[in-house]
Amino acid sequence: MLMRYFRIKMSKINNNVILFGVIFGCLVFIFWTLKNISSLHDANSKLEFALKKLQAEGTSYNGAHNKEKLMLEKEEVDSEDIEMKTKAKELKENDDIVMIYNRVPKTGSTSFAGVAYALCKKNKYNVLHLNITKNSHVMSWADQAKLVTNITTWNTKKPALYHGHVAYIEFSSFSVKRKPIYINIIRDPLQRLISYYYFMRYGDNFRPYLKRRKAGDTQTFDECVANEMKECSPQNLWLQVPFMCGQAAECWNPGSKWALEQAKFNLVNNYLLVGLTEQLDQFVTVLEAIVPRFFKGATKLFKSGNKSHLRKTIKKKPPSEETVAKIRESPIWQIENEFYEFARKQFNHIVQKTFLYTDDGEMILRKKQFMYEKIRPR
């Protein structure tokens, strides 16, 4: 009985051990399986991470490549844009030109102004006449300031050529960024005075119907000089020097040597070109060569058209030798004539340096006499 009980007990113990072993084995298997699953999950995560990294690097490369491509394209566009802007700027600068012809009376100024008006539409620039109250040649300081501002900022009228009977104005006195181009024409001083004398009595062929201030006065210039009349006084010769000298008070002091020197200085330094009435055709040709923006076609127009003889004074009688000798005794004539000779020498110097003459007298522009070389860095 005891032995049977012992066997039964041992049998139960063995069954429990087996059950425990089975359960333990199952637990070990489950643990191992879970561990492997975890390892696989980690490996999968690492693989996914690696794939994402590779994709990211590929995207980064493509992005960088595309960015570089875009930069190159932008650079090309920018370079084209810069080139276009440069051309636009050059075009603007080519149009940002103001020319002033402060025309001296009775020097052929109407004939030359006619050339400017005839060419303005074709050459695409504006011509504006500057009308000074009561034909005054000197302006107040306030008016000068306003005029300078208007001329330099009136961009809708650029390029522009202004003309009027006004003395030289020094634009730099008003701190402008860009000074205008000055041109003018002067004439033998005595011939200019004689022309003006008869013009005030008989007018000209430009507007023959217009009655002049001295209409009806038939006294000749010789008679006027002989009678020492005010109208033919040497004081009236004093015009070309002050016009070129400027707005300063001393410029208008008849016979002033300071005014003479200032006029010479301005002619050389502040005027692009000062021509002569007696050589008006050459003046037009030189301007066409150096300022084609305004005067392209001017020579042909002047020679073949009716612009070379637009306005001539009626009934102008040449002076006698006695009259000429008397006028030349005047210090005012001497200074005016000195300035005229100075201008004539300068103008002919420019013509000779700019043109060659053919056997038939035609002016041929000289070939370019300069070049650039040894440019560094390469």
Query: For the largest beta sheet, what order do the strands appear in spatially?
Result: 2-3-1-4-5
- What spatial form do the alpha-carbon principal axes imply? elongated
Structural class: alpha/beta
Mean pLDDT: 84
Low-confidence stretches: none
Q: Helix tally?
A: 12
Q: What is the string of helix and strand elements?
A: HEHEHEEHHHHEHHHHHEE
Distance between the termini: 123 Å
Largest sheet: 5 strands, parallel
Number of distinct beta strands: 7
What percent of the residues sit in helical stretches (DSSP H or I)?
Answer: 55-70%
Radius of gyration: 47 Å
Protein model, in words:
- The protein is α/β, with parallel strands linked by helices and 378 residues long.
- It has twelve helices and seven strands.
- It has helices at residues 2-95, 109-123, 141-153, 189-202, 221-226, 240-245, 257-269, 280-290, 292-295, 298-304, 321-328, 331-354, and strands at 98-101, 126-129, 160-163, 181-186, 273-276, 355-357, 363-365.
- The strands form two sheets. The protein has a five-stranded parallel beta sheet, sandwiched between helices.
- Helix 8 packs antiparallel against helix 10 (298-304) and helix 8 (280-290) crosses helix 12 (331-354).
- It is elongated and about 165 Å long.
- The N and C termini lie far apart (123 Å).
Give the secondary structure arrangement, pairings included.
Layout: H1 2-95, E1 98-101, H2 109-123, E2 126-129, H3 141-153, E3 160-163, E4 181-186, H4 189-202, H5 221-226, H6 240-245, H7 257-269, E5 273-276, H8 280-290, H9 292-295, H10 298-304, H11 321-328, H12 331-354, E6 355-357, E7 363-365
Parallel strand pairs: 1-3, 1-4, 2-3, 4-5
Antiparallel strand pairs: 6-7
Helix pairs in contact: 7-12, 8-10, 8-12
